[in-house]
Amino acid sequence: MIRRALFISSALVAGALLGACSDNASKPASNAGAGAAQQAAPVGVVALKKASFPVTTILPGRAESFQTADIRPQVSGIIREIAFREGGEIKKGDLLYQIEDAPYIAAVEQAKAAISKAEASVPSAESNLERYQRLVGSGATQIEYETARTTLLQAKAEVESAKAALSAAQIDLDHTKIVAPFDGVIDQTAYNVGNVVSANQSTALTTIRQLDPIYISLTESSTNLLRLRDAMEAGDIKGAENVAFHLILEDGKEYNQQGKLDMSKQVVSETTGTFIIRVLFPNPDRVVLPGMYVRATVELGAETGYALPQLATSRDANGRLTAQFVSADGKVETRAFENSSPSNNSWLVTEGIKDGDQLIVSGLQSITSGMPVKPVPMKISDNGVVVPAEQPAAGDAQKPAAK
Predict the structure, then answer these.
(1) Which of 8, 142, 195, 292 could pair with 63 as two cysteines, CB 3.0-4.6 Å apart?
(2) Which segments constitute the Multidrug resistance protein MdtA-like C-terminal permuted SH3 domain (predicted)?
(3) Could you please report the per-residue DSSP string of 63-112?
């Protein structure tokens, strides 16, 4: 019994000692956490100011030829000559293929002979008609006169028929020379010298594409179309009649030509909910080729508001635009915006901000809402890089860490 009591007492003493050690160990940690909470983390900020900014959107698209022509023969025969360089540039009227023309030259000569033969019978028929006309009533019947007149008409008709045959033969002869219908770039040939081709065959000899200018077919959502129309009717967007298009190539570089709206399909796709906008771009150096995937920045007008750089924003679970600001008491404040419009590398917001508000643009990974921070003035360079406000953009640029 005594041994059992001693064992219980020893266990109680050990438990008390362990509890005291635990309390002593937790006190320094708590004090350290309190000290860390009082330290303000430095963050880069930019002061916002209300101004007029372009309303833009970026649309995906694909390049298409301005004109495309599949070249097919209009007469049958053997290819005698191929006069172009595959993949080269050609001009309108340049000779592409020469089909053997000897049979067609013979047909032209035969048609000319038929005209001469038909014309030779006309004078005789005219003389015969005049003779019967004089003898009507004094030795020639009316029937004989009508027959002579019919014979003359038939002779003249045969002349016209022969002339039409000559025109047809000449057209066939001209078609033995296949020429370019417009300026462009020509593909490789599907037939070689010595191959036999047929009139209006289904297989094309080659294809010509006109690349200057060039079409860009852009895809836009019907939702954005409705939103744009609402903004225009409300007067929020001005100058939308002069829509400007700027092209971004596959390598990320901006194309040095500006496009103009050509047409848009008025039917929204039932499967994708999108509609097509076709834009015409000058392409003098053949930089853009058919089939290329590109992006186009579209300036839809201008709107007054505050520009939030995309690098300083994110989206919440409901899809709303969010950004971090420095509150009046120096703490992180998270704001959400129901409506926003793209404007180059920024989001354009019209509500929930006032002049002078400090938007946090760097150090976003190390802060949370309600945390005290120390604002450091920064600015955004033209290429979207965060730099110190007192140094030029070419100085020690520092891109913000990805959020």
Answers:
(1) 292
(2) 309-365
(3) EEEEEEEEE--SS-EEEEEE-S-TT-EE-TT-EEEEE--HHHHHHHHHHH
